[in-house]
Design brief:
mainly beta; Rieske Iron-sulfur Protein; globular; binds FE2/S2 (inorganic) cluster
């Protein structure tokens, strides 16, 4: 499998010690213009199935699969920074992954998201 990824050096001021590994893997997910403000888009890459959210001037990325069941969050309804699963209407905060409304009880995984050169990227 191939995907659009590259290594970047982590700035020294973000390291906790000199011995910490200084390179992280970044994966390009899509162009910013491919996700309209207030929308969510599914992206499959690097063995991951992700949901990319555009909230105002910010982008966020989470796993696409709802932690409660078979729901796909990219098929849900985004209101500000909260995504409602289309299956049982559970809700998550896309910034933190926290559960906002049951029946979900397990937070959704979030990814460090970077917007650079017009592309939405995550660090792994
Ligand atoms: S599958 Fe998402 S709320 Fe149940």
């Amino acid at each position: 499998m191939t995907f659009d990824a590259f290594e970047v050096n982590k700035p020294l001021d973000q390291l906790q010690s000199k011995d910490q590994y200084t390179t992280v893997l970044r994966v390009r997910l899509c162009k910013t213009e491919e996700v309209a403000d207030g929308e969510v888009r599914k992206v499959e890459t690097a063995g991951l199935v992700l949901a990319v959210y555009h909230v105002g001037s910010e982008f966020f990325v989470t796993d696409d699969a709802c932690t409660h069941g078979p729901g796909s969050l990219s098929e849900g309804f985004l209101e500000c920074d909260v995504i409602e699963c289309n299956f049982h209407q559970g809700r998550f905060n896309v910034r933190t992954g926290a559960v906002v409304l049951p029946p979900c009880t397990i937070p959704i995984k979030t990814y460090k998201t970077i917007v650079e050169e017009g592309a939405v990227q995550i660090e792994l």
